[in-house]
Amino acid sequence: TPHAIGRPDAPSCVSCHGDGERHMEDGDPSLIEIPAGSAGAATCTTCHGGIHSALEEGRAHATIGVHCDTCHSVHGTPSAVPALLRSTPNELCGECHQRQVRSFNRPFGHELGRGGLDCVSCHNPHGGSGERSLKHDRSGEAVCVTCHSDKRGPFVFPHVNGPTGDCLTCHQPHGSSNPHALTRSRVDQLCLECHSTLEGSTLGSQPPSFHDLRSPRYRECTVCHVAVHGSNTSPALVK
What percent of the chain has pLDDT over 70? Predict the structure, then answer.
């Protein structure tokens, strides 16, 4: 393991458990330090200081008593499990995040394990809570475009991007009962959350006031506005 004894750059037993000389002389097991909990995490960060530790103030895991040894086995794990984790990332995350695990059973959305997708593909477990734990690619865009590269910008005419929202504004990434993993079952209802028919300073810069939304023909917005993720040719996102 990365903690193997004998490697020139590896820590030794005393790096984590303290000076064992007195323990050998006295035979007192209490002289050996056992890194665990918040104190153990402090020991880990003496080497792993570059990691944005979950112990930092305000981090989600620290507030519920989740520390390094909750997920990692210092002395080694089965060879198929990366990063000295006690089990696979999906199994570890699912122990606490059961609601999210159940959402993957919905008919539309992502499928854990398919194509190597797991929880840490999108989330940084050492980061913040909720959306703040989501990873970003090198350009600073949401992790979604790492796989959904056809949705990557920049677009001349962007849609939901930056200050006006992101992928999660319209999609439920863990799983949804609606096609395309949308947050609503009807497309027009989703669009009208921003593109209000009310006059004034609504988020929708071009409210669909000229459409009679009582007619079913106007309730499938994406029949005409096909470039819903952004367009390089049409400000109305029609092509």
Answer: 84
